[in-house]
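To whoever is covering the structure queue this week,

Two jobs came back overnight. Logging them here so there's a record in the thread.

Job A:
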Amino acid sequence: MKPLCSLIILCGLSNILLAEEGFRSLFNGRDLTGWEGSPDHWTVENGVVIGTCTGPNDLDHNTFLIWRDGTVQDFELQATVRMVGDNNSGIQYRSRERTDIGPWVISGYQCDIHPAIEHTGMTYEEKGRGIFGLNGKNVILDDHANRWLDSEHPPVKVDVTDWNEYTIIARGNHLIHKVNGQTTSELIDHDKKGRALEGLLAIQLHRGNPNRVEIKNIQIRNLNDGKILPFNPSELAKTARKIEKPRTVNPQGTGPIQRTSK
């Protein structure tokens, strides 16, 4: 079989497989139709979505590319992403806008994309309750937002400057993050006042150190089997250990933070 024919057949089979699995692409590969963000910071080049922060004087706060064609509830999302520069990014979901801070500002759940291994793929809430579980930690939040370590495993090692596939699975109050098919962190959120079951999807561009985030594939499928896992405090105390809120010494990247000259 000729190579071109083989490629066409393989591409066709790939598209059929995606259709069977129920995934749909959220980028058209040409422009930012269906998305909204700062036109000074987001563009599409050669089928890749690119967000660029030139340095500490470029942004007053983190800015986001927001999906405007709907909201997300229970879903599985896959995105292929890489970072350039000593800073971090993230995929926001079930989030909300913060127009009180500025345009294109988002608060909510985030799958972190961070050069510090303990942070990449962690469960986190931007402008909210902060870090839940670092890479390698599966955490339960009780009904008063206390953190309980349910289980742990070796952190998934990732070089964020390479292309990596990030997966988010959200079912009810159970959230799972994966990188390249390996689970980095899980969260079960029993905090009714703080949790979100629906909201916006967005990509983060972090202020501060110069950086570029690149996304060449993002696809999603809806899940219909989501349910709220019940809270049982007596069982929680038997199987999990209460922990303090995780802190970070790497708020941007792994090196020093470049300061604004303003």
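Job B:
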Amino acid sequence: MDWELTGKIIWGLCVVAWGIIRFRPNIKARKTKIATTKRPPIERFSMFASQLGLGIVPAIWVFTGFPKAFDHAIGPASIAIGTALFLFSLYLFRKTHKALGKMWSHSLDLRENHKLVTKGIYQKVRHPMYSAFWLWAVSPPFLLANWVAGLAGIVGFGTLYFLRVGQEEAMMEAEFGEEYRQYKARTKRIIPGIY
């Protein structure tokens, strides 16, 4: 069996599934106006770094084979681990969008009449969307037989995460005050009970 091709196909199908999951919530969220937004240049840079690492760099390798010098062999165990990670990522991504509803935004935005979401998946962690993206970021090293394509998502999404999460929490605390501080005290950021 051609494990390299299998990994590419699974990666591609999962990326398409990710887009399908995000499509409807994106349309619904746009119907609710943004009341507060914080999009400084560092936010735009971090969004670009994440897109580059999670999608663009892997897609370049998948469709062109560049950079071939960093190719390596993968097998069925690697494909199984990568597939499981990406599928769990998709599951969390769907649960997160369902819980957020029209409060969802792809950037540092608060919608009109924004409500603090603490139900559903948000009872477990404060940032399950980031948990889903981290799972996406760690799946390509198992699915893609190229070190650059495989590790790009960890670097790209890691850049967004570490530049944004503190700003996002400060924004939520400024908006929701004690309610957010209490929520923060009883939940972890992305891994239940750990971090």
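Note for Job B: The first strand starts at residue 34 and ends at 37.

Please reply-all if you pick these up so we don't duplicate work.
Q.
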